[in-house]
Structures are given as C-alpha cells and as structure tokens.
Amino acid sequence: MNLRPGLTASASFDVTDADTAIALGSGLVPVLATPRLLAWYEAVTIQAVAAGLDEGRTSVGSRVQLDHLRATPVGGRLTVNAQLIHLDGRLLRFEVTALDESAAVVAHGQITRVVVDRERFLARLGSSGGSPH
Questions:
Q1: Please, what sign has the CA dihedral across residues 115, 119, 120, 126?
Q2: pLDDT tens-place string over residues 61-87
Q3: pLDDT tens digits, residue range 35-48?
Q4: Is residue 94 part of a domain?
Q5: In terms of residue numbers, what domain contains 33?
Q6: Long-range contacts, 10-13 (Cβ 8 Å, 24+)
C-alpha cells in the first residue's frame, strides 16, 4: 500500500430527477437525496486512494458521519471533495465536503473505509452470507 494522509479527490455532479429524495424513497421532496450524496462521497473516497492500493486490494465502507445542511434542487451542481485525513494500518478516515455552485457548504462529514483483499472478502460472503438452505 502506498497511501498517506493528504491524498485528495474531487468530482462534480449534476442533480437529476433520479437523484431526488422522491426517486430514492428517502423523502417526499424533489431535492438531492442524502443517500445519493453519500454514494457520491463514497465514489470520491475510492478515487482518492485507488492508485495507492496494491493489486487485488480495495476498500469497503465501515462508518459514515454526514451532516446534510442545505437542499439542492434538480439542475443544481455539486463539487464533492474527499481528503484522507487518517491512516492506521488498513483503516482509512476521510474528511468529505460538498459545495454548491456558489461555494456554499451543502454537506460535510467523515467516512471510514477499511482496506481488504477483494478475493478473500468475497469468499467470506459465500460461507457466511445468504440463505441458510
């Protein structure tokens, strides 16, 4: 692993009807849904460390703390940023922010991910997940 605190990534997203609380079932208003925002945050955290992970390794989400402060309507554009702020063995902690077109903070928080061997992680699902039959 070639990771260090300070690694960053950023991406911009346009809010569409498919991104709303109504579409995702998380509310009854046509504004950006918190679950979609979280998915965008996760994507950017993965992007921040992708080049530093050894082949066959990935990271999985383990903890989220998210404050969604402002509504974003359909047609709005957000810039989502992630910075790796803490590294402890396989544990990665990111500071995440989302800014609207006026640079106002729409949301912020922290996401913790854990580095895993992809094949071993998936193999454990086969032996412990799914139906008992």
A1: positive
A2: 999 999 999 999 999 999 999 999 999
A3: 999 999 999 999 99
A4: yes
A5: 8-126
A6: 10/44, 10/79, 10/80, 10/81, 10/82, 11/40, 11/43, 11/44, 11/47, 11/79, 11/80, 12/77, 12/78, 12/79, 12/80, 13/40, 13/77, 13/78, 13/80
Q: Copy the structure tokens of residue 2.
A: 């070639």
Copy the structure tokens of residue 98: 């989302």
Q: What is the CATH number of the domain that holds 78?
A: 3.10.129.10
Rounded-to-integer distance, Cα 125 and Cα 121, Å: 7
The total of structural domains in the chain comes to: 1
